[in-house]
Amino acid sequence: MSGNILMLTPLVLTLVLALVLRRTLVALGVGIISGALIISEFNPVNTTVYLSSKAWMQFYANGQWQAWHLNVLAAMVLLGVMTQLLARGGAVKSFADWLYHRIQSGRQARVGVVVLGWVVFIDGIFSCLAVGHVCQPLSQRYNMSKEQIAYLVDSNASPLCALLPFSSWGPYVMAILASVTLLPLSPLESFIEIAKLNFYAITVIILSLLIAWFGIGFSYTAATEQDITEVEAGNPWLLGVPMASLLVASVGFTLWSGAANSESVDITQWVTSADIGAAMRDACILATTIAVLMLKFSGRTALQLMADMFVGIKIISFAISILLFTWMIGAVIADLGVAKLLADWAERFISSDMLVAGTFILCAVMAFTTGSSWGTFAIMIPIGAEIAAAVDIALMLPVLSAVMAGSVFGDHCSPISDTSVISATSSGCEPHAHVVTQLPFAMIAALSALIGFQLINLGVAAIWSWLAVLLSAATLLGLYHKLSNYEANIAVKAQS
C-alpha cells in the first residue's frame, strides 16, 4: 500500500499544485522531479542522469530523431512568429479598417465578429487579440456593448481551436494523444473523432451565432455614427493572404504526404497515412514566409520584422515549455507504472455509467481553477485514456472528448484564463464584466453538453445525443431570454 502511495505522489503533487498555485508549469515541474527522485531512489546523481536521459529522448531515441516532436515544436514556434508579425505589422488594423467600410447594420456587425473568429482560426490567443481589436471600432458605430463583443470573440476562439487539427491546438493535442499507447486510431483520426463529440465547443459556437443574429442577451449602448470617410479604406490582404495560405497549405501538404505514403486512391486513406506534423510545419513555413514578404513590401523594415519574430518566439515559449514538460511527466509516470495502478483502481471502483459525464465535470473544475485548458489536457488526456481502457475501452474516445470539452468550458469561464482576459481587454471591457456576462451562455452550453455526455455513456447513439444537446441548448436559451426580458421590463417600470 505504501508503495502505491509513493507511486502516486508525483501525480497528486502535480494536480494539487496546479489547483492551488494555478501555475501549470510549476506543477508539472514538481511532478517530474519528484517522480525522478522516486525512480532513482532519491539519489541526486542518478536523478540528474535520469532526467537528462528522458529529456534527450524526447528529441532523439532508438537511434533516430523524434520527427513528430520536432515538427510539432517547429510548427508552434512558426505560429507564434506569424501571429506577432500580423499583429505588430499592422495587418490586423488594416483589416479592421477594411471591414469598417463594409458593415451596414448592427446584425452584420455582430455576425461579422463571429465570422471573423472563424477566419482567424490559427490560435486561441491570437484570435482573441486580433478579432477584439478589429471589431472594437464597430461598437462605436453600432449599438454593441463591449461585453457583447468580448463574448462573441471569446466564444469563437478556443472552442473553435479545440475542433480544428490545423490550428495551433491541433499539433499540441495530437502530440499528447500520440503518447496514449491504447489509442484505437491514429492521433489525427482520434482528434477528428474526439472533435465530433465535443458537445460543449460546438454548442458554444452555435449559441454565439444565434445570439449574434438575434441580438439577445446583452444591453445596448447608444449608437454613435462616425463619418465613414474618416476611416481609411484598409487592406484586407495583409491578414487574409497569410491566413488563407496556412489553411490551403495545411490541407494540401497533408493530402500530398498521405498520397506519398499510401498506395490507395482513397482520400480518407491519404489523411490517415499523412505525416500531419511535417504538413503543419511546412504550411507554417510557407504562411510565415508569405507574411514576412508582404509586410516587407508594405513598408516594414528588416529590423522591425526581426523584432516582431523575437516577440512571437518569446510569447510562444511558455506553451512550448508546457508541452515539453507534458512529454517529460508522461515518460516519468509511465516508468512509475501509475497509469496501470489507476486503471486497476478504476476498473474496481468507477462505474462505467458515470465515467464520461464525470470526466467532463472533473476537467471543467480543473481548468476553471487553473485557468488553463492546455494544462488540463496535459494532465488528464493520458489519465482519462488509461481509466477508460480499464473501465470500458469503447468509451475511450468519448472520455477524451469529455476531457477536451470540460477543459475548454472551465477555461472559458475562468477569470484567470489568458483568453478570458485578452478577449475582454482587446474588446475594451473589464475582464470581470466579461466573465460575468459570458457565464450564463457558457452554463447553457455546459449543461447541454453534460446531458449529451451522459447519454453517450448510457449507449445512446451519437445522432440522438446531439439532438438532445441542441434541443436542451435551444430550450435553455429561450428560457434565459424570456427571463432577461421579464427582469428588464420590471426594471423599466420601477424607474418610471
Features:
single chain, 496 residues, mainly alpha, 2 domains
Descriptive overview:
The chain has 496 residues and is mostly helical. It folds into two domains: 2-64, no CATH class; 68-495, no CATH class. 78% of the residues lie in helices and 1% in strands. The protein contains 24 helices and two strands. The chain has helices at residues 2-21, 24-39, 44-57, 67-88, 91-100, 106-119, 124-135, 138-141, 146-155, 158-161, 169-177, 187-196, 199-214, 237-261, 267-273, 276-297, 302-336, 338-349, 355-370, 373-391, 396-413, 418-427, 431-457, 462-495, and strands at 60-61, 64-65. It has a two-stranded antiparallel ribbon.
Strand order within the widest sheet? Answer: 1-2
Q: Low-confidence parts, pLDDT < 50 over ≥5 residues? A: 222-228
Number of domains: 2
Mean pLDDT equals 82
Calculate the terminal CA-CA distance, rounded to whole Å.
70 Å
Question: Structural class of the secondary structure composition?
Answer: mainly alpha
Q: Judging from the principal axes of the Cα atoms, what is the shape?
A: globular
Helix content: over 70%
Radius of gyration, Cα only, in angstroms? 23 Å
Instruction: Give me the number of helical elements.
Output: 24
